[in-house]
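Hi everyone, sorry if this is the wrong subforum. Our group has a chain we'd like a structural model of before ordering constructs, and none of us has done structure prediction before. Sequence below.
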Amino acid sequence: MSERHKILDKIKKCLALSASSNEHEAEAALRQAKKLMETHGITDQDVQAAEAEEHRARAGAKTTPPSWEESLASKIADAFGCRLVFSAYLWNCQSKWSFIGCGAAPEVASYAFSVLHRQAKRARDEHIKTRLKRCKRAIKTRRADLFNDGWVHAVAGKIESFAGNEQQTAAIDAYMAKHYPSLGNLKSRDRNDGRTLRDHEHGDFFAGHRSGRDAQLNRGVGGADQHSQLEDLRGRQ
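Answer:
Right subforum, don't worry. Here is the predicted structure as tokens:
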């Protein structure tokens, strides 16, 4: 733990004590918190942002993710009460999805994405091998995206929403303002946007939906259960 994190922890403990029913203890704790903040140049936003954490998962694309992958990441982020950021790198690095939340949620969300994304890719490869191997490359990719659209649509029913409280929301807002002050909107790539789908292309979507119903993702309900869930997901690699 860095020295700054240690100071932030001390400040948070003092602020917690400042809510004490003992008036003298509360005033002393608040004075100590303010003194630490002034001494180390720590703002209220810094303290609030320290309640949130960020965990990253590898993206499938280097620059612009396909719409089905963005949909998968978004559904997982929403389910775990996290904010989602896509970071693309122009040099030879792998892009990332960042899940930002409180407690164990961002860690479990990032791992859940990795598990489900890996399953989606395996299912996609199998669909291409069995149904699309004679198609031209561009058509193969576009129809495989339809398959994954269906896959993600089916998986959405397996991901339960976890409600965040007001304190978590405030902490995440503070984290975003501090670390991502100029965040833009992500424009993912939808290769089928504006097209009128043919029967066999609808078939790709429904094949993906059938495959997605077999996806594996066990969920905890919070705290220690989420850590148990993470261990369970690791066991399914």
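For your construct planning: The chain has two domains: 3-42, 49-235. The longest strand covers residues 52-58.
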